[in-house]
Specification:
Elements lengths: L1 E4 L13 E5 L8 E6 L2 E4 L7 H7 E15 L2 H19 E5 L5 E2 L9 E2 L7 H5 L3 H6 L16 E2 L2 E5 L1 H8 L16 E15 L7 H25 L11 E6 L8 E6 L8 H10 L42 E4 L21 H15 L10 H10 L16 H12 L3 E6 L9 H10 L4 E5 L2 E10 L6 E6 L9 H6 L3 E5 L9 E6 L6
Parallel strand pairs: 5-9
Antiparallel strand pairs: 1-2, 2-3, 3-4, 5-11, 6-7, 6-10, 7-8, 12-13, 14-17, 15-20, 16-17, 16-20, 17-18, 18-19
Helix pairs in contact: 2-6, 8-10
Keywords: Hydrolase, Protease, Thiol protease, Ubl conjugation pathway
Family: Belongs to the peptidase C78 family.
InterPro entries: Papain-like_cys_pep_sf, UFSP1/2_DUB_cat, UFSP2-like_2nd, UFSP2_MPN_N
């Protein structure tokens, strides 16, 4: 019997309504859901929805702010300071202002049922679509270029304020203050706690109910930050206590289908957090042979991406047409690197360099490395350093191929690659099975070079019975701006048949292998 429930341990913040799910693997029974009502378990009904339906029905409300924290650098003092901060927020003293609008959300104890700047009783979905300025924050980005084929439907970040009216009401109590004065030396900590909380809200939820959800989400975020502080202090056995500010990260593992928020100490590298990540993998029944919670794996929201940055996952939304074919594509995230980016005119010679940059970006996004995407000159210097090229190669406009790409991956990142060679483009039609296996089990982008051109293969659509095969091609020869619509509609990223490859050209494919570690 498998049971999944909210833990009651002291280090886990309980929900108001803990959930118990029961499933008997031996009898393959239906999942049974129970909730605590008056301290007794009660069966409740539930609805199973697909991941796509969930993303359509729910909006993610993201709250970002910084809150001051001043206390003694000591376990009990830090816990007390966070507890006071959470009590202040839970007492109705918080006020949320949705930026670029006149909408204010306050405690329901205030006037107008806690909603200012709106009339009626709108739902969160209606509020999200009410004006152009708010719609931009909901992932619609009117008049803006799309940075990902799948942007999270996200509300404009509410700004956290503290209600002066509520604070005056609290201070009106006719009580004399009591002061305890203790004279001693101690180490004080002054910092700002970074808050980045996500609330998953159904579109039909009334806006007045959003206040309680934001307060609960904010308090949970503060509990995670508190635990991060306490774990750092607890690990300091004797000697000086050294702590760094907790940083929040949101992860969206494809195996989970929902966000997971984790706080890491700012100055603690990923290498020192392996045990914490391993515990997360075990708790969530996730595989232990690939990183999912390294900083590089964190989800990047569209508004966090700088303008004119390389586009992310430009293949999403494209469909193939192989009858009864099975589609296998790259796992995870990559950025699209192509001609003339980074103020570098490499048109006519830099396609393989750009393909290598796309592959390196994949290893960065998946958390396998924190090394930056290399420039053309750094790639050339790498090949000179290992003795593959002469010193005059650095700064030149000479081509590189699949073999050089594999050399650079191994030297720069410690990544090994498998090379497949074919004598003609037509022969690539017989490699559907090998490529299908690669994208199913390895999932890295594949660099292919032949003649004077290089491309990146992102996936295949293959019918094993008929042998029909199509390739998902990312073309580094594109010279335009970062416009997803043009890239997809003009075929710079798209599904191509075997006839896309030249029959007379000799091709080498570089298949980077994925390391097995956390």
């Amino acid at each position: 019997t498998v049971e999944l429930r909210m833990s009651a341990r002291n280090d886990v913040h309980m929900t108001d309504n803990p959930v118990l799910l029961r499933y008997n693997a031996d009898t393959n029974s239906v999942v049974k859901m129970q909730m605590f009502v008056n301290e007794n378990l009660k069966d409740v009904s539930y609805e199973v929805v697909t991941e796509n339906e969930m993303w359509k029905q729910f909006i993610h409300v993201r709250l970002q702010t910084k809150l001051p924290l001043v206390c003694e650098l000591q376990l009990e003092a830090i816990s007390d300071a966070f507890q006071q901060l959470r009590r202040k927020i839970a007492a109705g003293m918080a006020c949320f202002h949705f930026q670029k609008s006149s909408v204010y959300l306050m405690s329901s104890d205030t006037d107008n049922n806690g909603l200012s700047g709106l009339t009626g009783d709108p739902t969160v979905g209606e509020l999200c679509n009410m004006s152009d300025s708010i719609s931009e924050g909901c992932g619609k980005q009117r008049g803006k270029k799309k940075y990902s084929a799948r942007d999270v439907d996200q509300f404009q970040e509410p700004l956290l304020l503290f209600s002066a009216k509520t604070m005056r009401a609290e201070s009106s109590n006719k009580c004399a203050p009591v002061i305890h004065y203790i004279k001693r030396s101690y180490t004080s900590m002054r910092t700002f706690v970074q808050v980045d909380a996500i609330s998953m809200v159904h579109r039909d939820t009334k806006t007045v109910r959003l206040y309680a959800m934001l307060v609960d989400s904010l308090c949970r975020n503060l509990r995670l930050a508190e635990n991060c502080f306490l774990e750092q202090i607890s690990s300091c056995e004797g000697g000086d206590i050294v702590v760094s500010c907790p940083q929040p990260f949101h992860f969206l593992p494809r195996e989970c289908g929902h966000f997971i928020t984790v706080f890491y100490p700012k100055n603690q590298p990923d290498a020192q957090l392996e045990e914490e990540r391993r515990l997360l993998h075990k708790q969530l029944a996730l595989p232990l042979d690939c990183p999912l919670f390294r900083r590089g794996c964190a989800f990047v929201f569209s508004e966090d991406i700088p303008l004119n940055s390389p586009l992310i996952n430009v293949h999403e939304g494209l469909t193939s047409s192989v009858k009864d074919g099975e589609v296998s594509v790259v796992h995870g995230i990559y950025t699209y690197h192509h001609y003339c980016q980074d103020r570098m005119d490499d048109s006519g010679w830099g396609c393989a360099y750009r393909s290598l940059q796309t592959i390196v970006s994949w290893f960065r996004w998946q958390g396998y490395t924190d090394k930056p995407v290399p420039s053309h000159r750094e790639i050339q210097q790498c090949l000179v350093d290992i003795g593959d090229k002469q010193p005059s190669f650095v700064g030149s406009t000479q081509w590189i191929g699949s073999t050089e790409v594999s050399f650079c991956l191994e030297t720069m990142l410690g990544i090994t690659s498998r090379i497949i060679s074919v004598s003609s483009g037509e022969e690539l039609g017989s490699k559907g099975g090998e490529l299908e296996y690669h994208f199913k089990h390895i999932g890295t982008p594949v660099m292919i070079g032949g003649g004077v051109l290089a491309h990146t293969i992102l996936g295949v659509d293959y019918n094993r019975n008929t042998g029909e095969l199509k390739f998902l091609i990312l073309d580094p020869h594109y010279t335009g701006g970062e416009d997803l619509q043009i890239i997809q509609s003009k075929g710079w990223c798209g599904w191509k048949g075997v006839d896309f490859w030249k029959k007379t050209a000799y091709y080498n494919l570089c298949l980077p292998q994925r390391p097995r570690f956390l």
